[in-house]
Amino acid sequence: MDAFSGQVSYNSDDTTSSRYSPTRILERFLLPWSPVGSVNTPEEFLKNIGRSMETKYSVESWDEFWTKTGANLKEAGLAIRDRRYMLWCMSKYRRGFPFEEFVHEPPPKKTIRGWGPSVQNGKRIRSRVHQDKSKKKRNA
């Protein structure tokens, strides 16, 4: 520990980036200190976070569940959005947040696709560039 900065300093090259900071490494393997609410099994946790996670992923033990990483979830066949959501919920639960504060449904699909089609929500969209060109042609 450096006396002036109050931070731990490491000599290894692996720990210089924020990706490998000691808190990030520890957070991955920390079990939640005390279960918040009535959640005691991984199945209950997955059911509480919603998005039908209990059908998409199953794990045997509570300890094994909390040591999973994104790579393990990818091998299990979870989609990237589900992986990110599950890991985010695990992080929030570890820090003691109640489920009501962080659980939410996925965002709805976009109704307007791409860079903006010429017809959006049943109305024809015309840009100002096209309108200006048509005015010039009429005046000439």
UniProtKB/TrEMBL annotation:
Species of origin: Armillaria novae-zelandiae
Family: Belongs to the mitochondrion-specific ribosomal protein mS41 family.
Protein name per its UniProtKB record: Small ribosomal subunit protein mS41
Pfam families in the cross-refs: SAM_Ribosomal_mS41
PANTHER family: PROTEIN FYV4, MITOCHONDRIAL (PTHR28235), SMALL RIBOSOMAL SUBUNIT PROTEIN MS41 (PTHR28235:SF1)
Domain annotation Small ribosomal subunit protein mS41 SAM: ranges: 42-96
Basic residues composition bias: residue spans: 123-140
Signal peptide region: none
GO cellular component assignments: mitochondrion
Region (Disordered): 110-140
Coiled-coil region: none
UniProt keyword list: Mitochondrion
Subcellular location: Mitochondrion
